[in-house]
Design a protein that fits this description.
Oligomer: single chain
Radius of gyration: 18 Å
Largest sheet: none
Helix content: 55-70%
Strand content: under 5%
Mean pLDDT: 81
Order of helices and strands: HHHHH
Length: 108
């Protein structure tokens, strides 16, 4: 989708989109690794998403599907941050990931 619309959104906006995708992958990786600070990365990702939404006035042409879609995307960013924060507080901080052993410890 990004490559087919690259000429429409322009190179600077494509860089913003790439940064958002990078932060999204990193935030989800931290969450799957049960890092208690994963909510910070999710907040950064969704803050960038809301910044892009307000800066551009839409989400890379999503209003072509309906003017209300920008509100849906913005609501997703807020709810995703709250759910990740809740999951971090209620699950990860109560039961953190087990300590990992280093490879050399297994060899002994």
């Amino acid at each position: 989708m990004l490559f087919s619309n690259l000429t429409q959104i322009g190179i600077p906006n494509a860089i913003f989109c790439g940064g958002f995708i990078f932060l999204g992958i990193y935030a989800y990786t931290e969450l799957m690794d049960r890092n208690p600070n994963a909510w910070l990365w999710e907040t950064a990702k969704n803050g960038l998403g809301l910044g892009i939404l307000f800066y551009l006035g839409d989400w890379f042409g999503v209003p072509s599907a309906g003017n209300w879609m920008s509100y849906v995307v913005g609501t997703y960013f807020v709810i995703a941050t709250l759910v990740t924060l809740g999951f971090t507080i209620l699950d990860i901080k109560k039961k953190p990931a087990p300590e990992r052993k280093r490879v050399m410890e297994y060899a002994q």
